[in-house]
Each structure stands twice: as C-alpha cells, then as structure tokens.
Specification:
heterotrimer, A mainly alpha, B alpha/beta, C mainly alpha, A: mainly alpha, 12 helices, B: alpha/beta, Rossmann fold, eight-stranded mixed beta sheet
Chain lengths: ~300, ~400, ~300
C-alpha cells in the first residue's frame, strides 16, 4: 500500500517537472504548446543511449539531456512561435509525433521499436538508488522538483518573468517598450523543453528501459491537463495538478477497485472526472496567481 | 484557501476508503495469481484474448476443487495499456497489495522488460505467453515464457523459406512494432545466411490500415514471395489490399497468423498462405478440447498466444500444487523452483520443457492455408545452423 | 520509381487515402469553424456512428446480395448518422456548453475527457476486436492501363466531392448557413440580431457528427470497425483541416487530398520508409504553416462556417 503511494508520488514528481515547464510556456507566455512528450522522449533516450551504449554516468547524462532538449526547443520554437493559438498547438503536437516517429525508425541509434533495455540505476556516492526501494528514488525525484520549482518561481518573478507577462498581455505594447518578444518566447520555450528533458532522464532510470511507443501526444495532453487543472501561471498549483491527475489515474488500483471493475471503467472514470472538473472549475483548482488572463485564453465568443 | 481544503478533504476521504479496502487478510483458503497485459487501448484485444486463456485454466482448476483440492485460485488482472509505466504500477499493486505468488504475462515486449526487471528483484516468478523478444528471459532466473523466442522462429522461418520453399528473392512488409521488427530481423538474417536475398523490405506504422503504397512498390519489385510477420488485423488488411492491387505473389507469415480471427477478417484472401507458428497445435485431442472449451466459454476462438497462456497457467498451477503439498504454503521462491523443474509437461501445445534460461524448448510448426483452413505440414527446428525436420 | 502505371497506381492510392482524410476533415472543420476549439471527441463520434451503422446493416441486410443490400447499406448509414447527430448534440449540451465562456483550454480538455469516455465505453460494450463491414456491392478491382482501381475507391472520392459541394452550398446559401457564419464571426452580436446561437451551435454539432458517422461508415468498409478507429485517422484528418485552413470547407478537402498524396509520394518518390509517413505529414504541416500561417485556403473570415 505505502509502496503504491510512493510510486504515485514518484510519477507525480516526474510529471510535475514537465508541468512546471509547460506552465512557463503556457501559463506565463500564453503559448499553447503540445510538445512536452517530444522533449520527454529526447531526454529519456539521451540517458538511455549514453548510459547503455557509452557507459556514461547518469549524473552526466542529465545536463546533456536537459540541454539537448532545450536546443530542440529552440529549433522548434524559432520558426513555430510566429504561429498563434491552435495553429501553434497543432504544429508543436506535430513536432512531438515526429520525434516519436524518428525514434521508432532510427534502428541503428535507438534500436527502433525494440527500445533500449537494462539502463543502469542512478548511483549517489557509490550507492545504487534502486527504483524498487522507492524512498531513495522518491527523494531524488522530489529534489529535482524542488530545485526546478525554486528556479522557475524566481525566474517568474525576475525581470524576465515580468517581460514574459508583458509579452503575453500585449505583445505590441511590450515590443514598443523595448522588450524583444521573440527572444523571450524562445527562452521560455527552451527552458520548458529542457526541464522536460530532465524529467525524461529520470523516467528512463525509473523504468530502466525505454520504448518509443509510450511517448504519444497523450503524454503532452496529460501534462497540459495538469497545468490547467492545477491553475495556470502558478507553479505550486501545477505540481498539485500533477498529483491530482496521477492520483485519479491510479486511484482504482490503489483502493483495489481495479480487481472488481472492468478495465475500461478506470479510463471512463478518468474521462468523467476530467469533464466534471472542467465544468466545475474551468480556471483550475488554485487559479492564477498573476494578474489578468492571457490574450489567447480570453473568454471566447465575442468581446466578453 | 478554501479550495485547497476541499481538495485535501477529497484526498483524505479517498485514502480512507483505501485503508478499509485493504483490511482483509485471511487464512489460506485462497491464493492470488497476477496477470498484466493491455486490457484497454489499441492492443486491448490481445490482453483480453490472452487473459481469458489464463482465466479458463483457473476456472477449470477451481471447479476441480482448486489447488490440492482446497485452495481457490484468484486471478487479479491489471491493465498495462501497453505502457511500461502502467505495467510497473500494476506489478507494484499486485506484489504489495494483492500479494500474488506468481505472475502470468505481461503480453508485450516493452512491458515485459520493465516488469521482468522488477519481479526478478522482488523474487516473483513471471511467465509470459507472448513476449517474444529474444533477450527477455536473460533478465534473470525468475523470468520464463511459454512462447518461442523470435530468435528461434526467425531461424526456422528464414531457412525454411529458402531451403524448402525454394524462395530466392524475398520481399517483406512489416509494421514498426517490437513483435514484427523482431521477426523481420531474425528471419531476414537467417534467410540471407541460408543464401537468399531480401530484395525489398517495406515498413508501416503501428495502427496503419492502408498498405497499398508499400504493396505497389513490392509488386513492382517482384520478389518470389512476401513475408508479413504482423498482427492479425494488419495481415487481413494487407491480404485484402494485395488482391485489390492484383498482386499475385505468395504470402508467408509467422505465428500471428495462428489467430483464427484472420479468417473472419480476410476470408478467402488467406488461401495459399504458408506460415510458421507453434508446433502441431491442430493435431492433438487435448488441443481440440481446449479450443472447444475456450470457444464455448468466451464466444470466440483462442489464438496461439491464448493457447500458450492456458499452458503457462496450468504449469504454474501444477507447480503451486507441488509446493503446497510439500510445504503447506505458497512461497514465491519455491514456486519458481518448482516451475523451473517442470519436465515433459504435456500441454495443449505439446510437450513442454524449459531451457536453463527460462526459455521454452520449442519447435516450429509449418502450416499452409487451404481456403480458410490451416493444414499442418511439418515440424522443424534449427540445430547448429541446420534446418532439421522433427517427427513428434 | 518504375513504370508509368506504377506512378498512376500511387496516384490512385494517394487520392483515396487523401479522400479518407478529407471525409473526416470536413466534420472537424465544421465544428471548429463555429466554436473555435479542437473537438477531440470527433473521432470517437465517428467510431460510435460506424458501430451503429454496422449493427443496423448486419441486422437488416439478409443473405442474398442484391439491390436490397445496397438499400440496406444506406439505411444503416442513415441510422449511424442520426445516432451520431443526437450523440453530438448531447455531448455539446453536457460537456461543452457550460464552458462556452470559460478559457479556451477548458473545452479542449473536456473534449479529451469525452473521448476517453466514448472509446472505452465502446470497448467495454462491444469488445476490442475489429469487426468486418461487408461490401454491399462487388468490390472486385478493375484495371485501366495497368492501374488497379476498386469501386470503393471511386465511391470514397465521389462521396467526398458530393459532401463538400453540398456543405458549401448549405453554408453559403441557406438561412441556417448564414446564421452559422454569423455565429462563427461573433456570437453575441449574432444573438442581438435575433439568431438563436445555441440552436445554431446544436445544429452545427448535429451536422458535424452526422458527417463523422458517414465518413466512419464508408472507411469502415476498408479499415474495419474497432474502438480506436477514430483516433489516429482523426488526428491526421485534423492536420489536413489545418493545412487547408481550418474552418474552411474547400480547405479541408484540399488539405486531405494533399496530405494523402504527400504521404504516398513521399514514400514512392523520395524513398522514405513508409514507417516514417507521420514525419512526412507533420513536416509538411509545419512548412505549410510557416509559409501560410492560416493554412492554404484560410484567412478569408467570411469563408468560415
């Protein structure tokens, strides 16, 4: 029982990292990006390939995973950030699918659909952090979350954070004040991508294997759900959002409900909760900490 | 603040339910066995089909009084959705909440690796009826399977196609998933080692339904035969569309073709297909009885994976019975040892033995479809790189 | 690539694949045009419609193939359309309508929830096995100059053209169509003008969902019926709609056909492995969006449904 709760908390931590990144992109800059799955996959594969094929230690692969994912963030961000709203969403979703598609086909590097197995465990001072012992791994994951939370929170309250909000509220006004909107957007995109890459590293050392099939756009959607459900523009809220989504996903197993209900009911329940939550609190559970509503998420259907 | 309180309260209530739901832990009148497989999502069909093989074995055993005539078996099924992350959650729950004594499944390679590493550490034996990746059993001594590895199937297929069927130029159309990729790699390697050439290898994405582009290219390349080591639904599409394109080249396939569903989906297009699959299954009376019982109970016929699952479950129950009779309890390690010690078990798929590493000691049967009925041709294996026909 | 006939065979394959995308894209684009949100459940409505059609067809078709089979086929199709239309309206009422004034992301997530509910309910109620929908007519291919063509391929292309033209006429010429365009432009102003916006939105959903069912039923002849049948094809169809300019009816058709041709010829001409065709589709999408951010035929506000 307690082990299962720890497992949920580990998954929460990994997804919370992605949600923090998504929150910077969506909650602060107001960009509807659906590509965290792609960066997550890149991070996972960087750690898998470097540690299995080249025997490089996990702690060295983490920054590489983060930086590489961030670079891809810039590569995808530079051209697509000109797009707005749903067009950006579908273009970024496309990028995520491209990553998965390439991982599945580049047999010589990624071993194709067979994936990569036997990824070494994390070691700290020569001590193995077994994903099965849970506590150790939990601490590692949540340290990452804590660091990310502090960094991103500070960033949001810095000059850059204010610039990002200014860009979100009114890009033209912000530009006329001398804020380079595109540069800030790309920065936000890169940081959000980088942290998802780090989450990928952690994921692959928890599962100890990677296969391309799991990085579908549903992962991106789940991350977006966490952000919206928790409350956009609020880093603490999106961590809560990550917990709630994971909790709902695994709740039937936690209480042993999965022994008695048909397997599909678990998914149906998830769908029902999602719809209900949205109708109940469309602005998220904790709501926005910052002022105002991003332009692209403004109320729809007319001037208000 | 109020909102946070509401959320916390919901969480608290839910956790409360949790505690109550897990309160019971009684005497040994019941023993739990786990199953992990995709029960929902694109491949939910396979989890369903295979888990029902295990369920049938369980029901039969329980109807006969259970283990040693008194302990009822309960199968706990956890959905992996084909995702290792969900698979790990499943084994976590099965291991710590349900306290299962052994695991059947997982169904597919990806989840089998993740779960396999875990059960090895935990000391729970698992037996997969369908995870064909050649390295799965190398995880450790707690991992078994009742399906031939794609290594063996590939070796037999490649050599048989060239040496017996006389195919020199082979075309391949396979889907980029672990199962089909494994068979493609294994078969093309041995086919070329035997002296043939793979002249055209086309791929498709998982979930594809349209194969006309690849088939048009294959038609233009004109190989002697086309190898389609895919899942049932995909092969049905390929056969039908090949006929629509007027592609007049023989098709050959692997154990995915043993699923009788193919004849419903593809009908007459299956005529003439030759496939390599599990040994001899259509021959024995035991097998026929199993198919009849399965079909009567579930309303559809089993495929070879479900058949493997049925055997796996029965071997497991026999091992559990042996342990229980000797010690009066169900120790996970003892069960693993008893399972590994299985010798010449007479299952519905034939005589079953396990190799040192937990692999099934298996032969491969060859079948040719006449209309919509598979006809048994012979049984083969590969010894020291030579194709050998086996008489059973 | 080899001969001329091989080229035309690829062309035919690409056109029908594109026709399938276009069929689904039409429904997507309708709904998006008026409510400006990605209805993720569209593919699942398509799936439900196909099941209903399949059940109806199998129940009434009888043994002999003949004129009645074809009539039965159309009756079944209409049954599927009606059921889907009602389902679509119901979903809109329950899951989207309360969110009409919420942030734009809320209905998107709600739609994902609906998609989970529909596909898993179907899997639970009807099983996950693929079901075959028999052709109501003889689908033996005929050959023209070495190119094999099936009657089904022709049917798909004909239906897609009929649907596009009639939809366009409906939206451009009819009173309801006019109201739809007004609602799409500005809901509140439309209301002030005496248009019952709620009703118009419901009608749009009904039509969009019926279109989905038609598309599903027709492609089911080729791809079979199963619970996740709407998912991936639906995503591609959405890409097609965006490429063409979402909200634009001719755009959906153009985008669909273009995507089908790109995927087919990307493989045939460029020698890209077919397993990579998603990459082809999405790279094309990104390039087109970069050149024309509103899609090929997008932009003209008036054109929007």
């Amino acid at each position: 029982m307690i082990n299962f709760i720890l497992l949920i908390l580990i998954y929460t931590g990994i997804y919370a990292l992605m949600a923090i990144g998504q929150n910077l992109i969506t909650g602060y800059v107001g960009l509807l990006s659906l590509t965290q799955a792609g960066f997550f996959a890149i991070g996972s594969y960087v750690t898998a390939i470097l540690s299995v094929t080249y025997g490089i230690d996990f702690w060295i692969t983490v920054p590489i995973a983060g930086i590489l994912a961030a670079l891809f963030g810039v590569v995808i961000g530079l051209p697509t950030l000109r797009l707005s709203g749903d067009y950006l969403a579908i273009a970024t979703l496309g990028f995520g699918e491209i990553v998965r598609n390439i991982l599945n086909n580049w047999d010589s590097l990624t071993n194709g659909p067979m994936g990569i197995q036997r990824i070494p465990m994390i070691t700290v001072f020569g001590m193995k952090i077994s994903p099965y012992a849970k506590w150790g791994f939990l601490v590692v994951v949540w340290l990452f979350v804590l660091v990310a939370f502090v960094l991103f929170e500070r960033l949001a309250n810095s000059r850059m954070g204010r610039a990002l909000e200014a860009v979100r509220e009114d890009e033209i006004a912000a530009s006329s004040m001398g804020i380079n909107a595109t540069r800030y957007k790309v920065w936000a995109f890169a940081l959000g991508a980088g942290i998802a890459g780090v989450a990928g590293s952690l994921q692959s050392t928890f599962i100890l294997s990677v296969t391309p099939g799991v990085f579908t756009f549903m992962v991106s959607i789940m991350v977006l759900c966490m952000v919206v459900l928790g409350g956009m523009g609020n880093f603490a809220a999106v961590i809560l959002g990550a917990f709630i989504i994971q909790f709902i996903s695994y709740f039937p197993q936690l209480v042993g409900l999965s022994n008695i209900i048909p397997p599909q009911f678990k998914q149906i329940l998830f769908g029902l909760i999602l719809v209900t939550m949205m109708i109940w609190r469309p602005q998220g559970i904790l709501g926005r900490k910052t002022r105002g509503e991003p332009a692209i998420f403004k109320r729809r259907g007319g001037k208000k | 603040m109020k909102k946070i309180l509401v959320v916390l309260m919901i969480v608290a209530v839910m956790s409360g339910i949790t505690l109550f739901a897990n309160g019971q832990d009684e005497a040994v009148s019941e023993v739990k066995v786990g199953f992990i497989g995709p029960m929902t999502g694109d491949y939910g069909n396979y989890g369903d089909l295979i888990s029902k093989g295990v369920l049938l074995a369980m029901d039969e055993k329980n109807a006969a009084g259970g283990i040693a005539g008194k302990v009822n078996i309960e199968l706990v099924i956890e959905d992996s959705e084909g995702d290792p992350q969900k698979g790990l959650a499943g084994i976590e729950k099965l291991s710590s909440s349900d306290k299962i004594v052994a695991l059947t499944g997982p169904v597919f390679t990806g989840v089998s690796f993740a779960v396999g590493e875990r059960v090895q550490v935990e000391g729970i034996m698992m037996v997969t009826p369908s995870g064909t990746h050649k390295d799965i059993t190398n995880i450790g001594d707690y991992v078994f399977r009742t399906v031939a590895s794609d290594g063996l199937q590939g070796e037999v297929s490649g050599r048989y196609f060239h040496e017996v069927l006389g195919i020199d130029e082979l075309g391949v159309l396979y889907v980029k998933n672990d199962y089909s990729q494994g068979l493609f790699e294994g078969t093309s390697e041995s086919f070329e080692a035997a002296g043939g050439t793979v002249t055209i290898a086309e791929t498709a994405q998982a979930g594809d339904k349209d194969f006309k582009t690849q088939l048009t290219k294959i038609k233009a390349a004109g190989p002697d035969a086309v190898y389609i080591p895919n899942y049932t639904a995909e092969m049905a599409q390929i056969l039908e569309q090949a006929s629509q394109l007027g592609l007049d080249i023989p098709f050959i396939s692997g154990d995915g073709f043993s699923n009788p569903e193919i004849y419903q989906l593809a009908g007459d297009y299956t005529d003439g297909v030759i496939y390599v699959g599990p040994t001899q299954v259509s021959e024995t009376d035991d097998y026929k009885d199993f198919v009849a019982a399965y079909t009567e109970k579930w309303g559809f016929a089993p495929d070879s994976f479900a058949t493997n699952a049925y055997d796996a479950a029965n071997i497991l129950f026999a091992a559990m019975e042996k342990v229980y009779n000797e010690t009066g309890k169900f120790d996970r390690t003892d069960i693993r040892d008893a399972f590994a010690a299985t010798k010449d078990y007479s299952g519905v798929t034939g005589t079953i033995n396990f190799a040192e590493n937990g692999d099934l000691v298996a032969y491969q049967g060859v079948y040719k479809v006449n209309g919509t009925t598979p006809e048994y041709i012979g049984t083969y294996t590969v010894v020291d790189g030579e194709l050998v026909e086996v008489t059973l | 690539m080899g001969s001329i006939s091989e080229f035309f065979q690829h062309l035919m394959n690409g056109l029908t694949l594109g026709g399938i995308y276009a069929l689904i894209a039409l429904g997507y684009t309708m709904v998006y045009g008026i409510l400006k949100f990605i209805n993720f459940a569209h593919g699942d409505i398509l799936m439900v419609g196909s099941y209903i059609g399949l059940f109806t067809f199998n129940a009434i078709r009888g043994q002999q193939m003949g004129i009645w089979t074809i009539v039965a086929f159309f009756i079944a199709m209409i049954a599927g359309m009606l059921f889907s239309a009602v389902l679509g309206v119901l979903i809109e009422r329950i899951a989207y309508k309360p969110l009409r004034r919420a942030t734009r992301l809320a209905p998107l997530l709600s739609a994902i929830g609906v998609s989970f509910i529909l596909s898993n309910t179907a899997a639970w109620a009807w099983g996950t096995k693929s079901r075959k929908l028999d052709y109501p007519f003889d689908n033996t291919p005929f050959t023209i100059g070495g190119v094999a063509i099936t009657p089904h391929q022709i049917l798909i292309l004909v239906v897609v053209i009929i649907m596009m033209v009639s939809l366009k006429l409906f939206v451009d010429r009819s009173r309801i169509g006019k109201a739809m365009r007004a609602t799409s432009l500005d809901q509140d102003t439309a209301k002030l003008m005496g248009i019952k916006a709620d009703q118009i939105i419901a009608i749009t959903f009904a039509i969009g969902s019926a279109l989905a069912a038609t598309a599903g039923f027709l492609i089911a002849l080729e791809i079979k019926v199963y619970p996740s049948m709407g998912m991936m094809t639906g995503l591609k169809a959405f890409v097609a709609a965006v490429v063409g300019g979402i909200g634009n009816i001719s755009g959906a058709m153009l985008g669909g056909i273009l995507l089908g041709l790109l995927e087919t010829f990307g493989v045939a001409l460029l020698g890209i492995p077919y397993g990579m065709r998603d990459t082809i589709a999405f790279v094309a999408l990104i390039i087109i969006l970069l050149i024309k951010p509103e899609g090929l035929l997008g932009k003209v506000e008036k054109e929007k449904v």
